[in-house]
Automatic annotation (TrEMBL):
Protein's name according to its UniProt entry: Aerobic-type carbon monoxide dehydrogenase, small subunit CoxS/CutS-like protein
Lineage per the UniProt record: Bacteria, Pseudomonadati, Acidobacteriota, Blastocatellia, Blastocatellales
EC identifiers of the protein: 1.2.99.2
UniProt keyword list: 2Fe-2S, Iron, Iron-sulfur, Metal-binding, Oxidoreductase
Keyword Cytoplasm: no
Any Pfam family: Fer2_2
Domain of life of the source: Bacteria
GO molecular function: 2 iron, 2 sulfur cluster binding; metal ion binding; oxidoreductase activity
SUPFAM superfamilies: 2Fe-2S ferredoxin-like, CO dehydrogenase ISP C-domain like
Residue intervals of the 2Fe-2S ferredoxin-type domain: 4-80
CDD domains with a match to the protein in the record: fer2 (cd00207)
Amino acid sequence: MRCELITIKVNGEERTLAVAPNRTLLNLLREDLNLTGTKQGCDDGDCGACTVLVDGRPVLACIKLAAQCDGCEVTTIEGLAREGRLDRVQEAFWHEGGMQCGFCTPGMIMSSYALLQRNPHPTEAEIRQAISNNLCRCTGYTKIVAAVKRAATFAEFTQR
Ligand code: FES
Ligand code: FES
């Protein structure tokens, strides 16, 4: 299969990569760039475990072709912490105990992060809507919602 060259910025670093037309963004991230924080759950667009940001918007990386991301900026869970410090959303999940097995957590955090970027003070209904594509088998969602509310209270939450 013929590959094409794409250039994407991943967590702030520009990368030029040869990708097959059927290569998904998820496989590119996990297998070519070793960014395994993004999880492979259903691999079919149903669970949200693979959620990353493409140009700031949450995207299911398992059903997004890598070639469609040419020229885009991709942010994964590995791109949130800075200089060894957790991002505020990560910190809020930690404090509230918004995870159990943790498999859904990277995707949950990316969806929540995107919500707070566009809506710094969401209602509970807006939080639940924003994570409605992210399935969690463990927590019952209550602590996840509490974590997003907590993250929203950090006054210095800033856009990146
Ligand atoms: S792995 Fe992508 S939605 Fe489940
Ligand atoms: S914490 Fe286990 S699936 Fe959400």
